[in-house]
Amino acid sequence: MDAAQFQVPVRLKLAAEADIQEIYSAEDAVELLFGWPQQEGPIYEDALAECLVATVSPENVEEARRAFVAFAKVSNILAKDPATAIIREMTAYWVRH
To answer: pTM for the complete prediction?
Structure first.
């Protein structure tokens, strides 16, 4: 098992017609970030820095995940989590009834 593996993978939708891609580790996140077309801005830089640190200090992996999720959100590539949607629907149902 990869020492810098995220407890929960980050699910991405890189394009409207693309399949969902899961990022399982800080190394996976670094690879995506290095290939990202706009490599600038504080959120990008924070995500890259945190993920790079986690590759050598696995105790920081969840901080890296949080920074990477923030990057994915502002980049509009974070996929909707189907489990969260189901829980939200069930909660709304029970509140109404």
So the answer is: 0.81
Instruction: For residues 72 and 7, give the distance between their C-alpha atoms in angstroms, rounded to a whole number.
Output: 17
Q: What is the DSSP letter of 60?
A: G
Q: What is the pLDDT of residue 1?
A: 45
**Angle of CA points 34, 48, 4, to nearest 5°:** 100
Residues 45, 30 contacting (CB under 8 angstroms): no
Strand partners, 10: 23
How long is the chain? 97
What is the C-alpha separation between 75 and 39, in angstroms, rounded? 11
Which of these, 24, 74, 15, 21, lies nearest to 46 by C-alpha position?
74
